[in-house]
Amino acid sequence: MDIQKIIGNLKKRGFEAVFVANKAEAVEKALSYIPEGSSVSWGGSVSIEESGLLDRVKKGKYKVIDRATGKTPEEKYELMRKGLTADTFLTSFNAVSEDGVLFNIDGNGNRVAAITFGPDSVVALVGINKIVKSEAELEERALKVAAPKNAKRLALADEKDICAVFVRHRICRVKGRIKIILVGEELGY
Fold first, then answer.
1. pLDDT tens track for 119-129
2. pTM of the predicted model, to two decimals?
3. Coil, strand or helix: which one is 169?
4. 77: Cβ–Cβ under 8 A, 6 or more apart, which residues?
5. Are 92 and 45 in contact (CB under 8 A)?
6. Which terminus of the chain is more exposed, N or C, with fewer CB under 10 A?
7. Residue 44 DSSP symbol
């Protein structure tokens, strides 16, 4: 796998893309994209939790929009809606093809909605384990690797419950709005 070629392919499609060796470097790079005082939100992402990015953001000088702080389902839903207008949205992708296409499956749709159209900046940490050879393999990886693990993590009776919305990002129309940080180690599902 040629990481620099993948980075080049992502850039050709309008994504900002960089490669870092490890999680610690990924966190520092992600934080460099987030101005102090700006609002930050995220969807469910094991990658941003595992890396330590969420902890750093929560302790930083940011206006945090965290759905987990909602006391009722209605409050959590309202916080997810507010996340759509955050300055920065943190996430990952279920799969990235070597030719620069991104893929996600989502249960509620808040994560893919924010990535697709919402915050001015989207910062995604993507472990090397999520890279697939071609665009044809994106959905298969998401369905066979990410979905079952996420369903188990969320204690869902049926993994299909997490597969409500499928989004394939082929082009970033606002150049550089979506920033992909490829990490040279496994991260997330």
1. 999 999 999 99
2. 0.91
3. strand
4. 70
5. yes
6. N
7. S
Using DSSP's 3-state secondary structure scheme, residue 92 falls into: coil
Residues 131-173: tens digit of each pLDDT: 999 999 998 898 888 877 776 777 777 766 667 778 899 999 9
Instruction: Determine the pLDDT at residue 161.
Output: 64
Report the 10 Å Cβ neighbour count for 20.
18
The CA-to-CA distance between both ends of the chain, in Å, stands at 19
In this structure, the number of other CB atoms found within 10 A of the CB of residue 145 comes to 16
Structure-token pair, residue 60: 């930083």
Contact 95, 132 (CB under 8 A): yes
Distance CA 42, CA 60 (A): 15
pLDDT score at 67: 95
Identify whether the C-beta of residue 126 lies closer than 8 Å to the C-beta of residue 181: yes
Q: What is the pLDDT of residues 75-105, one digit of tens each?
A: 999 999 999 999 999 999 999 999 999 999 8
Alpha helices in the chain, H assignment, sequence order: 3-12, 23-32, 46-50, 53-59, 73-83, 110-116, 138-141, 147-153
